[in-house]
Design goal:
This protein is an alpha/beta fold. The protein has 13 helices and 30 strands. It is globular and about 75 Å long.
Length: 605
């Protein structure tokens, strides 16, 4: 079904957007058809029209340029080497998209989820209202939901879409009521458990004249595994393929033959370079991951797949079930890259023309910082920074060099060691839980700690804004009883079952907890059981240990189901409070915290 906007102003905007997309699609088809093809759009009209589709994903409220390695992209050079390019920041993303639209009469901007959630303080402090405002200004038309859209639950997501002040914190700006998104959120496979109906619109039809293009938006079926239980309470998440195919049929019944699926699930290309050509001869493995099976099974009625979730950049041809070429794209994360796709719409068939040589291939483009900033975005950032300044600029500690976290490609991340140590220290006292070790999930580490921040307040200073960017969820810490056998099973679940894959989720561990990961083996055998030790002593399967972890892990998040079987839970401070306390206790301007050596997990390759 088509979207039903809740406010008149959104209805007007969506109607205009629909008109723009429709006309653009027709021109693109013309380029793909033989010369002299019959006109289907009235006297003097070409049979085809080109529509420019600009897309991105996993923005995560990153309004300011991201720090450390998260603020750069890798570019493949002609000689096979790679080059790092600073990228990202909404001031530059807006400029890039606006420049890309020039000369294109018909252009639509779409996204594949996680526009908000796990956000830096500038957005997260205000429940992501600044990011929704920024997306309105830069001209986003439609997006699927992602798992992080549910970080604060379904009621808060609806507030993001439809407006209103926060039910607890009130209005962020005095005298102003948050008006919500002027773009359309889609959640086709997210249903209310009681009503069995989608919690938000499943589809959106973009029209102009005689051209119609439909969008279907879904998030990954496994969203409950990567969000706290409270965030998805009362919701069910359906199979991505079944849902897309269902609504593709519905769109066809409405006369919409041109369809784009926005899917918050993705893949892993063989190269991390944004301009890697996964379709070129000799390109290696091309792409792997969940999106491959999804793409191979989504109905041929769907003409293009815009994806996300894995924070990778790719533009790959994965044939549909009928063997026809179909492009699957993703634009990395944090607004560092956007994808420029030409859709070719045939006015006679009302469908997108898909032939290997019939239309330009989608191109991923860098959001370079070597361009003018969008003035309206600079003003937006300045305004919200003024509101955040009393909190954001408070020093929390000092570091002597970069401490890699999210940007690290190692199993054991230096910042992961720091965070786990912080949690252990905070919860080791008997009256705080008596923790003997701590474990934390790598997905909860959202950034690096950069020695020199962009627009820095001073080299080596870690502000509250920076520590919040690393630990934005404010997960409450739990201290629980687990047996040694359960601990070993948790380590084995890192490399088997639902968390296994090309990019396994390796738990970060506190000092004194060590083990060996043998990557030459497969599945659970990759954990060398005899190597699992605490303070030099082998873990006893029958002994009970007090383990600190965040509430997400304690609820079995990220597929660590054994952790749900804990006993004697004690709730402690938040992960962010633990982190900030550790920085204060272990660093000063005269003696800054140095990056740890990261020697707790021995990797055999």
């Amino acid at each position: 079904m088509s979207a039903t906007p809740q406010r008149h102003r959104r209805a007007r905007r969506l109607t205009f957007a629909a008109l723009a997309l429709t006309a653009g699609a027709g021109a693109m088809v013309a380029a793909a058809l033989p010369a002299g093809a019959a006109s289907g759009g009235g006297a003097g009209a070409s049979r085809t029209v080109d529509v420019q589709m600009l897309s991105f994903n996993d923005f995560h409220g990153t309004l300011e340029p991201p720090q450390g390695s998260s603020g750069a992209v890798s570019e493949r050079q002609a000689d096979g080497s790679t080059k790092s390019i600073p990228a990202g920041g909404v001031e530059y993303l807006a400029s890039s998209l606006r420049d890309a639209r020039k000369g294109h009469e018909y252009s639509v901007t779409a996204a594949a989820g996680d526009i908000i959630g796990a956000s830096p303080l500038l957005s997260g402090l205000f429940h992501d209202e600044p990011t929704i405002e920024a997306m309105n200004k830069l001209g986003l038309d439609v997006t699927s939901v992602g798992n992080h859209e549910f970080d604060e639950g379904k009621t808060e997501l609806r507030r993001m879409a439809y407006g209103g002040c926060h039910p607890v914190d009130g209005c962020s700006e005095y005298g102003k009521t948050f008006t919500g998104a002027e773009f359309q959120y889609l959640a086709a496979n997210v249903t209310d458990v009681k009503t069995k109906r989608p919690m938000m619109s499943p589809t959106f039809i973009w029209k102009k004249g005689d051209v119609k293009i439909g969008f279907i938006g879904v998030t990954l079926e496994g969203t409950p595994d990567v969000v706290t239980a409270a965030g998805v309470k009362g919701l069910a998440f359906g199979d991505e393929v079944e849902t897309i195919n269902k609504y593709a049929d519905e769109l066809n019944k409405q006369g919409v033959k041109s369809i784009v699926a926005l899917i918050h699930e993705g893949g892993l290309p063989a190269s991390g370079a944004y301009n890697y050509d996964c379709d070129s001869p000799g390109a290696g493995a091309g792409i792997s991951g969940a999106i491959v099976d999804i793409a191979k099974n989504v109905n041929p009625k769907v003409d293009a797949l815009v994806t996300g979730h894995t924070h990778q950049a790719y533009a790959c041809n994965i044939p549909d079930p009928a063997g026809n070429p179909r492009m699957v794209t993703s634009a990395a994360s944090y607004g560092r890259v956007f994808t420029d796709t030409t859709l070719t719409y045939d006015r006679q068939t009302k469908d997108i023309v898909r032939t290997p040589l019939g239309a330009p291939k989608p191109v991923n483009k860098v959001v370079s910082r070597d361009q003018p900033k969008a003035a309206d975005m600079s003003e937006l950032i300045k305004r919200w920074n003024t509101l955040a300044a009393p909190i954001a600029g408070r020093p929390q500690g000092y570091i002597s060099a970069d401490i890699p976290g999210r940007g690290s490609d190692k199993f054991e991340k230096p910042l992961g060691d720091v965070i786990a140590d912080a949690q252990l220290e905070a919860l080791a006292p008997a009256d705080k839980g008596g923790a003997q070790l701590a474990i934390t999930n790598p997905g909860g580490i959202r950034a690096d700690l950069a020695f020199k921040a962009a627009g820095a307040e001073g080299d080596g200073v870690v502000t509250y804004g920076e520590s919040y960017t690393v630990q934005p969820f404010t997960n409450m810490m739990n201290v629980v009883d687990l047996t040694g056998a359960q601990l070993v099973t948790a380590l084995q679940q890192q490399v088997s079952g639902t968390v296994n894959g090309p990019n396994p989720k390796i738990l970060q561990v506190s000092k004194g907890f060590t083990y060996t990961l043998d990557t030459t083996k497969t599945g659970a055998d990759r954990i060398v059981v005899d190597s699992v030790k605490l303070n030099g002593a082998a873990i006893d399967p029958a002994t009970t240990y007090r383990v600190a972890m965040n509430e997400f892990l304690a609820g079995g998040g990220d597929g660590f189901t054994v952790l749900k079987d804990h006993k004697n839970k004690l709730v402690g401070a938040s992960d962010l409070d633990c982190f900030n306390a550790y920085l204060a206790n272990h660093s000063s301007e005269a003696a800054p915290l140095a990056p740890p050596v990261a020697d707790r997990i021995t990797v055999v390759q």
